[in-house]
Amino acid sequence: MTSPPFRADHVGSLLRPEYLLTARARFAAGELDADGLRAVEDEAVDEVVRMQADLGLATATDGEFRRASWHMDFIYSIGGVEKVEENITVHFRNADGTLDYTPAGLRVTGPLRIDEPVFADDFAHLQGAVQPDQTAKLTIPSPSMVHYRGGAAAIDPAVYPDEDAFWDALSAAYRQQVTGIAAQGCRYLQLDDTSLAYLNDPAQRAQLAAQGRDAEHQHERYIRQINAALAGRPEGMAVTTHMCRGNFRSSWAAEGGYDFVAEALFGGLEVDGFFLEFDDARSGGFEPLRFVPPGKRVVLGLVTTKRPELESKDDLKRRIDEAARFVPLDQLALSPQCGFSSTVEGNALTRDEQIAKLALVVETAAEVWG
Questions:
Q1: Which residue numbers in the chain have pLDDT < 70?
Q2: Which UniProt keywords are listed (predicted)?
Q3: Residue 224: CA atoms inside 13 Å, Cβ hemisphere, count?
Q4: Predicted structure pTM score
Q5: Is the peptide bond between 143 and the residue preceding it cis, with omega within 30 degrees of 0?
């Protein structure tokens, strides 16, 4: 493939180098100023872009090195969204038990807007760092992520008396982001969305229903609003979405195949490609891919970022063949199942193990598709 998503691709976040973590800690302690931190971040981004080029990846991201988390840095930058210290507890699970993630909450307290593209300066640096044969990708959370955890309870009724008004404003703000970053030269945009994967989990739907929310149809609203956010996007901008069931320090939050959302999602979401998590039995089978229409690409997340053990190339090829029973091989691509560092802490792998995983993706894709 010569346009995104590529045969060998990756989700976006990468393990932060130790010297960057040290700089962030010094900045938090008041020992390093903002310019000093940005200089260290620039160095780390330049280094990780070279690493991606050396591996033969056509996609280049900045590893999300300037963020604390994959989504909240962006969401708190939306005008009208306020950070509140009412921590949300998200229960994650792993092979050893459970792990709680407690990010700060959010509240919509004013009119929603994005006057200047979020991460514009960060993306400009990435554009200057990429090689001629690399495509710079910007990853941002989907509009759904502003709504999923808090719902109507997080929206000030004095600002938006009903959810329709909220959604109209949020989608309009996202259109400002899309057109603004496209004008800057972005040709590869990814909307990261855990909610559309979480909704496949009956336990997650039960939680929403207990809050009085329409759990059976929430995904349909999200699909409509993402489409509204992308309406009128410039010709030549590829947009993908990544849907996983949580990724925090090698742990996950939800389980279940894509069956519940598949028909509405694959048939209705107006994106060019879907990054899907398929690294273990928790992710379900490939049968939901039968709803993917011609022309849409599916990036199979078969290589896990949660464990350091390297997958077998033969096993990856076998699973690609299994997926090709439901969607043509020519519409498929390969990637890790998620980012390696959705939050600043990162998953339980080393940098060398991360590189080995990415190299495996590149080599396998070359052997499957040429």
A1: 1, 86-104, 248-254
A2: Methyltransferase, Transferase
A3: 8
A4: 0.93
A5: no
